[in-house]
C-alpha cells in the first residue's frame, strides 16, 4: 500500500482537515453504501432485511473487522450503542466480578463521559464504591489490592498524552483489578494490541479515526476467556442466547454476543462498513510511522513559525497518540480564524488548539500549508476579531 | 388530509406490507434526506455540522415532533439510544424515586427486552427488588403500596391486546407507584396522550409505525414537573448541563436533556426526520378510525375465507392496537407461503401470524387482496412445502 489514500475520502475543496480525532471525514464509498442500504435493503427488502441483508449479524461482523485493527481475535468484539453505554457495560460487569472491592481507579485526564458514567453507576449501586481520579502520571502507583477496576483512556483527548498500556495492564492484573481500556483516540490512530495487553475489556468509538460518521456506533471487546462468564448489566434482547424465542427470562448469549443490547443501528452500520473498507490492507505500523512523521513535521514547523503557541503535548512522539495540542490564551479565537481559512482543527477549554493527524488522507503538503496559514494568522493578528471570539455551542 | 398517503412511501411492486408493526417501510423522502446529511453535512461540513447543521439539537427537536403525536408538551421528549436503554433509564430512575419499595410490576405479556432489562437492573442493584409479571388482566389488581414502579407495554406485541392506560395509570398514581409506559406499538399506531394519563415516564421506538428505518433511535418522555428532579443512572456527557465545558463532575442537564447519554446517531436521525415529515398534518384520531376500519375488514374477511385461522386478538377493536394476530399450528409455514406471494406479515412462536395496519400506506384494496391470497394458500394447502417449513434465524 502507499499512504495517503486521499482519493478514498471526500474532503471539501480548499479544506485541510486536522480534526479526524473528533469526527473523521466522509469515505466516498460510504455515500453509495448508505444509499444502497436505504433503497435496496430497507426499501426493497423491508422486514426481510434482517435475514436477507444480514442486518442481524452485522454487529459481530463489523466487530471482527475492528478487532483486526486492535489485536482482538475473531468473535471478541461487537458493535453497537454509544461509547458511554459501552463504558457502563464494561464497568458494571467489572464491579460484579470483584464484589469485595470498592475502588474504581481512573484518572483526572479521562474523557468526562467515562467519569460521569462511572459516577452514575456508583450512585445507582449504592454500595459505597469510590471513583478515584489521580493525575495520569500517578495512576500506576495507585493500583493496589483494593481496586476493583482500572478504567483509563489510552490517549488523552486534550493533549494526546499516551498511557503505558502494557505497564498499567500488567500492574492491574498483578493487583487482581479488572482492566478496562477506552480506545476512543487509539483505534485507527496508533498500534493497539488488546490481546498482548491482557486487558479484560476495551471499548471505543468509530466516528473518529475510523471515519464511520457522526453518531456511528461504539464497540466493545471482552477477553475471550472472560466473555462467556461476564454478566451483562444491560440485558437487552439482542444479547439473549435466542432473541427470537422471546423467552420471558434472560439467558446470556454466547461470549461477546451478550454485550449487544437493543436493535442495532442498521443504517449507521452501513457507513461503518464502508469506512472500514478504506482500512483494508492497511498496516497499522505504517500508519503509526506516518502519523509520527506528520506530527513531528507539524511540531517543528510550529516551533519555527509560531513560537507564541506552546506545545501542550508530550514532545516525544512515542508518548502521544495521533494528535498534538498547542496552548495559547487566545486559543479559541485563533482556532476560529484558522477554520475560517479552511484549516480545521478544534479547541478545548481553557486554551488548547487540537490537531489530529490521519495519514489515510493527510500528507506533508497539508501539514506545511496548515503551518503557513497559522503562521500568517499569528503574524498579522488576524484572530483578533469579534466574530472569532464569539463562542458557538459546540467547539 | 386524506388517507392513505401511499405515494409518500416506497413499497416494492407487488408487495402488500402488513408488517409496519415490526419495521415501517421507507418514506421516499428519507432516501434524499439521508444522502443530503451524508454528502452535504458530514461530507461538506465535517465537524462543523454539530453547529452548522444543528446535529446537537436534533434529539430534542425530533423529540418535540414525536411529542406532538403522543400528547407530550414541547421539551418533554428526547430521542436517542435504543428502546432497551430507554427502558433501563426510566426504570432505574423510578426505583431511585421510591427507595423504600422493592417491587417492579410488569406483566407476562410484556416484550421480553423490557423484562430482561428490569431483571438485569434488579441483579445489578442487589437490593432485593422483585420483578413481578402477572397475567396482563391481573395487573390492575396487583398494584399496591409495595410497588415502586409499574412498567407496562400498552399494546401486546403478539396479540395486539391493549391495556387500559387511564385506569392503570390512575391506579399507579393512587398507590404511589411510578408509572412507565412502553409505547413501542402505540406511537403512530393509536391515539396516545401521555399528559392525560399522568404517567411519569414513557418510552418507545421509531422504526415501527413511525417508519424511521432499521435501528432507528428510541425516545423517552418524562413528565415535565418530574424531569428536573429525575436522577439519571446513565449519566452520559450529552445529558450534562454543559457538555462542552468538559467538567470532571456530572451536573444533570435541564429537564429532559438529562436523559440523553452519548453522541446521537446523526445519520439515523436524518431518516427519522424525513419519516416524521410523512406524519405532518395527520390527525391521530383519523389514523385510529382508519386502522380500525382496515383491521375490522381484515378480520371479517378472514372469518369468511380462512375459518381455520383463529383470531388471537381481542375481537373488540377498542381493546387492541393496530395489529391483529391469528393462530394456526402451521402458522410459520403459512406465513412463509404468504410472504412468498408478496403479502408480508410475520410470525411469532408458537403459532401466531401477525398483521399490522398502517393507514398511512394501506387501503382497503391491500386488505382485500391479502385476504384473497391467504385464502388461496389455505384452500390449496400451498403452505405445506419443506421450503416454507425451514426456519430462518429471524422470523
Q: What can you see in these coordinates?
A:
Chains A, B: One of its GO terms (biological process) is anthranilate metabolic process. Chains A, B: Keywords: Hydrolase, Pyridine nucleotide biosynthesis, Pyridoxal phosphate. Chains A, B: Pathway: Cofactor biosynthesis; NAD(+) biosynthesis; quinolinate from L-kynurenine: step 2/3; Amino-acid degradation; L-kynurenine degradation; L-alanine and anthranilate from L-kynurenine: step 1/1. Chains A, B: It catalyses: L-kynurenine + H2O = anthranilate + L-alanine + H(+); 3-hydroxy-L-kynurenine + H2O = 3-hydroxyanthranilate + L-alanine + H(+). The structure is a homodimer of 395-residue chains. In chain A, helix 3 (58-69) packs parallel to helix 10 and helix 11 (284-305) runs parallel beside helix 13 (364-380). Chain A contains 14 helices and 15 strands. In chain A, 60% of the residues are buried. Chain A has 395 residues and is α/β, with parallel strands linked by helices. The two termini of chain A are 35 Å apart. Chain A has a seven-stranded mixed β-sheet, sandwiched between helices. Chain A has a four-stranded antiparallel β-sheet with strand order 11-12-15-14, covered by helices on one side. The longest helix of chain A is centred in the C-terminal third of the chain and has 22 residues, at 284-305.
Amino acid at each position: 500500500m502507499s499512504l495517503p489514500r486521499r482519493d478514498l475520502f471526500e474532503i471539501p475543496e480548499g479544506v485541510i482537515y486536522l480534526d479526524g480525532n473528533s469526527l473523521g471525514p466522509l469515505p466516498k464509498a460510504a455515500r453509495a453504501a448508505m444509499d444502497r442500504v436505504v433503497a435496496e435493503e430497507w426499501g426493497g427488502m423491508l422486514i426481510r432485511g434482517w435475514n436477507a441483508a444480514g442486518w442481524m449479524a452485522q454487529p459481530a461482523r463489523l466487530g471482527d473487522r475492528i478487532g483486526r485493527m486492535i489485536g482482538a481475535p475473531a468473535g471478541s468484539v461487537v458493535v453497537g450503542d454509544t461509547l458511554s453505554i459501552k463504558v457502563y457495560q464494561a464497568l458494571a460487569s467489572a464491579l460484579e466480578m470483584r464484589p469485595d472491592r470498592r475502588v474504581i481507579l481512573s484518572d483526572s485526564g479521562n474523557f468526562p463521559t467515562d467519569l460521569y458514567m462511572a459516577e452514575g453507576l456508583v450512585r445507582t449501586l449504592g454500595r459505597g464504591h469510590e471513583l478515584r481520579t489521580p493525575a495520569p502520571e500517578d495512576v500506576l502507583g495507585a493500583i493496589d489490592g483494593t481496586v476493583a477496576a482500572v478504567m483509563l483512556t489510552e490517549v488523552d483527548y486534550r493533549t494526546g498524552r499516551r498511557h503505558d498500556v502494557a505497564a498499567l495492564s500488567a500492574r492491574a492484573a498483578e493487583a487482581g483489578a479488572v482492566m478496562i481500556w477506552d480506545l476512543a483516540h487509539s483505534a485507527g490512530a496508533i498500534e493497539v494490541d488488546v490481546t498482548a495487553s491482557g486487558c479484560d475489556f476495551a471499548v471505543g468509538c468509530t466516528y473518529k479515526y475510523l471515519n464511520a460518521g457522526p453518531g456511528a456506533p461504539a464497540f466493545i471487546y471482552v477477553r475471550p476467556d472472560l466473555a462467556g462468564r461476564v454478566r451483562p448489566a444491560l440485558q437487552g434482547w439482542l444479547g439473549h442466547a435466542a432473541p427470537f424465542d422471546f423467552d420471558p427470562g434472560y439467558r446470556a448469549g454466547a461470549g461477546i454476543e451478550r454485550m449487544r443490547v437493543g436493535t442495532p443501528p442498521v443504517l449507521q452500520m452501513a457507513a461503518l462498513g464502508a469506512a472500514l473498507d478504506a482500512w483494508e490492507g492497511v498496516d497499522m505500523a505504517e500508519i503509526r510511522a506516518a502519523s509520527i512523521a506528520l506530527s513531528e513535521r507539524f511540531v517543528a514547523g510550529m516551533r519555527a513559525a509560531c513560537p507564541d503557541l506552546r506545545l501542550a503535548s508530550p514532545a516525544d512522539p512515542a508518548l502521544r497518540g495521533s494528535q498534538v495540542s498547542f496552548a495559547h490564551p487566545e486559543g479559541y479565537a485563533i482556532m476560529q480564524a484558522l477554520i475560517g481559512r479552511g484549516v480545521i482543527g478544534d479547541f478545548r477549554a481553557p486554551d488548547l488548539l487540537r490537531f489530529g493527524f490521519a495519514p489515510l488522507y493527510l500528507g506533508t503538503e497539508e501539514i506545511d500549508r496548515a503551518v503557513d496559514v497559522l503562521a500568517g494568522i499569528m503574524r498579522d493578528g488576524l484572530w483578533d476579531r469579534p466574530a472569532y471570539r464569539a463562542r458557538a455551542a459546540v467547539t
